[in-house]
Amino acid sequence: MADLLPALRAARLPLAQASALPARCYTDPELYAREVEAIFRREWICIGREDQLPSPGDYRSFELLGDPLVAVRGDDGAIRVLSRVCRHRSMPVVEGAGNRRSFQCPYHLWTYAVDGHLIGAPDMQRAEGFDRAACRLPALAVETWQGFVFASFDPHAAPLAPRLEGLRRAVEPYRPAAMRTCEPLVYEHDWNWKVMVENFVESYHHQGPHRDTLQPIVPASGTYAEDTDGPFVVLYNPTKDGAPIPAVFPATPDLAPEQRARFVVGAVFPFHLFTVQQDSLVWYALEPHAVDRFTLRIHLCTPPESEVDPAHAGKVEALRGFLDTVHRQDITACTGVQAGLRSRLAQPGRLSHLEKAIWQLNQFVLDRTALEGGSQ
Q1: 10 exposed, middle or buried (CB, 10 Å; 0-12, 13-18, 19+)?
Q2: Which region holds residue 102: left if phi is over 0, alpha if psi is between -120 and 50, else beta?
Q3: How far apart are CA 62 and CA 150, in angstroms?
Q4: How many angstroms separate the CA atoms of 270 and 143, rounded?
Q5: Which end of the chain offers a freer environment for a tag, N or C, measured as fewer CB atoms within 10 Å?
């Protein structure tokens, strides 16, 4: 670690003097394991949207950091995130998605209510001291914010919403909580998670990979990030001439002219990424697997009014096609970056003023991992 200290200290300098993180922060499995324990298992991770679980009993199974989990809406209307691992012999009690009144393990038929408590355990009457009331599926901490559902493995995680006040002010006028989530585009990528986040939170690269898609609408040189006081990014992308961002769906009412004439990039660290504009929301869901591997799901979210439009399905597919085109341009860039980071000759470069959000991410990572003072 001592050999990294000069580069880490350079990343700590004010933005006008700062450099990027050293390459090893993107390629070293030991440093990635440190991030998993110090960041991923302690911070809030977005696991879905409220509209994906509209009714009591609706559930969606997923994995997070290797743990089989299920998000489910209870009879009380609350969304919970529970372990799917049976408390008997560790068989997953549910797979997939749907609507159920209970979860039954297929191995020995132990049955759990949707709030996680045990309601059935056949032939356990001779197990001395077995307390059904104390046997329940473990639950993660859950918080909802602007229509998103966040979970944390840390039961003592500080509440999220108070730390996102600046981000709320920027995105709430676009009414993200009202948007409806479409089926995602799914990709498997072999880059470090920070490469994806960095690419998402700076628009400096519009003039390169997106010269024929985003650059003509929102030029790189006009983009800017807010100074933030929490674990988040607000990046504004105004149009070149102040004209409204082209709308495919009904526009959110009551937006000011400058709000219609830009899209806003939001990020909640470590890797919740989304954009809002006058007629839609796009949400990137990352599922890290290793230092250089993650699954990415790109969700388009549309206003509820669009669902009554007979052309809704065609418009969704057209916009999904555009999102795929833009992301494939990012794939070329991010693949190249990760290849360069693996080089023994790679050295961290200076950051542009247009990369303020990357500097903010770097401070977050270094704060949480304490790499400068660690022994790893």
Answers
A1: middle
A2: beta
A3: 13
A4: 16
A5: C
Digit-coded pLDDT (tens) for 308-344:
788 888 999 999 999 999 999 999 999 999 999 999 9
- Smallest Cα–Cα separation from 228: which of 286, 150, 170? 170
Q: How many other C-beta atoms are found inside a 10 Å radius of the C-beta of residue 244?
A: 16
What does residue 150 show for φ and ψ, rounded to 5 degrees? -115, 145
Q: Is 16 exposed, middle or buried (0-12, 13-18, 19+ CB in 10 A)?
A: exposed
Residue 66, CB-side half-sphere exposure with 13 Å CA sphere = 7
Determine the straight-line distance between the first and last CA of the chain, rounded to whole angstroms.
6
Please enumerate in sequence order all residues whose Cβ is within 8 A of that of 329, keeping only pairs 6 or more positions apart, or say none: 209, 210, 213
Structural domain boundaries, residue 96: 45-152
CATH number at residue 298: 3.90.380.10
d(CA 287, CA 167): 23
Q: Report if pTM > 0.90.
A: yes
Examine the domain organization and report whether 318 and 184 are in the same domain.
Answer: yes
127-to-10, 36, 104, 147, 230 alpha-carbon distances in Å: 61, 38, 20, 44, 50
Q: What CATH code is carried by the domain that includes residue 133?
A: 2.102.10.10
pLDDT in tens, 274-308: 999 999 999 999 999 999 999 999 999 999 988 77
Please classify residue 323 by burial: count the beta carbons closer than 10 Å to its beta carbon, then call 0-12 exposed, 13-18 middle and 19+ buried.
middle
- In the block, residue with structure tokens 């991030």: 35
